[in-house]
Design goal:
single chain, alpha/beta, Rossmann fold, GMP Synthetase, Chain A, domain 3, 2 domains
């Protein structure tokens, strides 16, 4: 099949009304499948007094109850290995991944053969959208151990690109691959691609001159859509950066940037997106900022209906200059990570923006959130890469954070370069001691 700019032009450029009609038909079928096949959905929807037959428009989905990570954890393994949310027997499942467990117990994500095939077809679309072609050499530097992003390399192969399945290997080994095979594209986390670039420079390799990477894909952390982080990566690598967004609860990359780099197109034939108010849970209109809620439209193994992602963002369904009609999501951060200091909402992504924009400090940092005299405060640890005194760098960080966020940190620790640990996957940057204290108290009371 000859392809031009689009992987599937008819699907990617569907007029708005036709796309909505496709979503409604798929939603009605998905809800009926979930009600007939999943013990959890039948029980909870009967309890809520809602039935799939009542859905005559996309807006009717708002009648159905939410689910979240806790729902998944509570139903996992109940009644069967796959749990009460599953809608197929284990014999029909060909692949499982798990969540990272960064917000609790890792949760299982099952796929039927059809689910998996459509998952990889979507990945191929994202790679093609980002410019991957048969003459590219692509390095997949994501963890293959139960991580839902591991199999995405199969989607890259569907584009015809030569794919090198590297996985999570030591930096020296990965740099050997990049130098020896001269690939043109790579996917890793934002933290790791920065650390890898720094490692290359330290070893005498200039990624811009000595390597051939011209396309970088990142996911798993906020950095790919933060301007300062994007600049930090492109300054080292001299490559075009594309942000991808995925959920193990659905599949690898559910959304991805196009050449316009204005939000991430979401696969709206697979996922219906709602946005709800952070306090009232009321439904918001397109473009308003709140918690993103996803509903699968084609998933068979485990339908996900009104799943609260915990991600704060918005969806824009206005036309994109690239010609694609599927909505674009903009993700600002995790609801769980937001904290309030002196009545100001603070997001780690805002702190990252400031740190990555200061040339005096490295790209590595940690944030500690704690309480002092019943007041929430935060501490930032950074690395000094300048010839300036630590006290001077500390003042620069304090002033920059105060200007950007509105509240300054209680403490800024300035460490020598190389002090903080570099991550090969998702970097753990936020240490919330308030949660750790609560968890400890709850554990002692059990």
């Amino acid at each position: 099949m000859a392809r031009g700019k689009f992987w599937n032009e008819e699907l990617e450029t569907l007029p708005g009304e036709r796309l909505k009609a496709l979503q409604l038909k798929s939603l009605q079928e998905e809800l009926l499948w979930a009600y007939q096949r999943s013990p959890y959905y039948r029980r909870e929807w009967d309890r809520a007094g809602v039935k799939p037959s009542e859905v005559k428009s996309l807006a009717d989905l708002a009648k159905f109850p939410f689910i979240d990570k806790k729902t998944q954890r509570d139903t996992q393994g109940v009644g069967s290995f796959l749990g009460e949310l599953a809608a197929v027997p284990e014999e029909e499942v060909v692949f499982v991944s798990t969540s990272s467990g960064s917000t609790g117990v890792p949760t299982l994500s099952p796929f039927t053969a059809q689910d998996f095939d459509e998952f990889q077809e979507t990945e191929a679309r994202w790679f093609w959208q980002a410019g991957v072609r048969p003459n590219d050499r692509y390095v997949h530097a994501l963890n293959f151990a139960l991580y839902v992003g591991g199999p995405d390399v199969i989607g890259a192969q569907r584009t015809g690109a030569l794919c090198i399945w590297v996985g999570a290997v030591p930096s020296d080994r990965l740099l050997f691959v990049l130098k020896t095979y001269q690939p043109t594209a790579i996917w890793a986390s934002p933290s790791y691609i920065i650390a890898l670039g720094e490692k290359a420079l330290q070893s005498g390799l200039d990624p811009k001159k000595d390597l051939s990477i011209n396309k970088i894909f990142v996911a798993g952390e906020m950095g790919g859509s933060i301007d300062a982080t994007r600049r930090a990566i492109t300054d080292i690598w001299g490559a075009e950066l594309f942000d991808f967004y995925g959920l193990s609860d659905i599949f690898g990359a559910c959304a991805a940037q196009c050449e316009c780099h204005d939000g991430l197109h979401i696969a709206e034939e697979h996922i219906y997106v709602e946005t709800i108010d952070l306090k009232s849970d009321e439904l918001l209109t397109n473009g308003e900022r709140g918690e993103l809620v996803f509903t699968t439209l084609r998933k068979k193994a485990r339908p996900i209906i009104r799943f609260r992602t915990g991600d704060i963002g918005r969806i824009d369904r206005s036309p994109c200059q690239c010609g694609r009609t599927h909505g674009r999501i903009y993700v600002d951060g995790r609801k769980d990570d937001m904290f309030i200091v002196s009545a100001v909402n603070v997001y780690p992504s805002d702190i990252e923006y400031v740190i990555r924009a200061l040339p005096e400090i490295s790209n590595e940092y940690t944030i500690r959130i704690f309480e002092e005299k019943f007041t929430c405060k935060y501490e930032v640890t950074v690395e000094n890469v300048s010839g300036k005194a630590g006290a001077e760098v500390r003042d620069l960080v304090i002033n920059a954070l105060k200007a950007r966020i509105g509240v300054k940190p209680a403490i800024v620790n300035v460490q020598p370069n190389g002090t903080l640990e570099r991550s090969s996957h998702k970097a753990k940057r936020v240490i919330d001691e308030r949660r750790e204290t609560i968890a400890k108290i709850q554990g002692e009371n059990i």
